[in-house]
Design brief:
binds magnesium ion, alpha/beta, binds phosphoribosyl ATP, 11 strands, elongated, D-Maltodextrin-Binding Protein, domain 2, about 220 residues, 2 domains, single chain
């Protein structure tokens, strides 16, 4: 038995993942975005898809409940990446992790004074590591979404969040003041599954590598 389970999330990276999978010969029988089913067979007799929350993809793969999955580098850094191979940068879901604040906030002055700063973010680990590298003292407030609101209502001085078009920042009179890192989505694989199910997994990884290179 070498049937593979792939963990995917609904939302913004699915649209870019499906064409790569299709080029690798894997097409879900129903549109994962529209279907209410959580387990979907695919056109590939040995591959099925499970639909999970973006932040849960690494957990399913780490525990072997899924053999492989697609997750943003942001999600992987927060998860820690324990027990995961990351063989492929798929080059999709591209954005930047940034520090942002109100247009009127004196960020450079605050940094120079060495003042304590309150940071609101979903990315607690990335934020702590970023400010530790800068030897800045910060208090981190954990949020689960709509980070852009926090500086507007006095919950935090700055946010650490993802930016793609910059429209959300602009619409809320916020500006990016530091670039932390570029983000894209990765293929992640359970190491045990790679060994035991290599006959099915390796051709899929190779096909994804080819379709990634073809579109980049
Ligand atoms: O939505 P849900 O709570 O279920 O989960 P999720 O937010 O983790 O999933 P989803 O689908 O929103 O994001 C999945 C992955 O997409 C993330 O883990 C990133 O790797 C990647 N990605 C790429 C982004 C963006 N671009 C992005 N722009 N994820 C989120 N955003 C948000 C950002 O947080 C900000 O609120 O979009 C807003 C900014 O967009 P612009 O275009 O206005 O700059
Ligand atoms: Mg979202």
């Amino acid at each position: 038995m070498s049937a593979l389970t792939l963990a995917l999330s609904k939302g913004r990276i699915l649209d870019e993942t499906l064409p790569l999978l299709a080029a690798a010969g894997v097409v879900p029988v129903e549109d994962p975005e529209a279907s209410r089913k959580l387990i979907l067979p695919t056109s590939h007799p040995d591959v099925r898809v499970v639909v999970v929350r973006a932040a849960d993809v690494p957990t399913y793969v780490q525990y072997g409940a899924a053999d492989a999955g697609v997750a943003g580098k942001d999600v992987l850094l927060e998860h820690g990446g324990d027990g995961l191979y990351q063989p492929l940068d798929l080059g999709i879901g591209r954005c930047r992790m940034v520090v942002a604040t109100r247009r009127t906030f004196d960020w450079n002055g605050t940094v120079q004074r060495g003042g304590r700063v309150r940071v609101a973010t979903k990315y607690v680990r990335i934020a702590r590591e970023h400010f530790a590298r800068k030897a800045m003292h910060v208090d981190v407030v954990k949020l689960y979404g709509s980070m852009e609101l926090a500086p507007l209502v006095g919950l935090a001085d700055v946010i650490v969040d993802l930016v793609s078009t910059g429209n959300t920042l602009r619409a809320n009179d916020l500006v990016a003041v530091e670039d932390i890192m570029p983000i894209s989505s990765r293929l992640i694989v359970n190491p045990g599954a790679l060994k035991i199910k290599r006959a099915t997994m390796q051709p899929l990884v190779d096909a994804l590598r080819r379709s990634t290179q073809a579109t980049s």
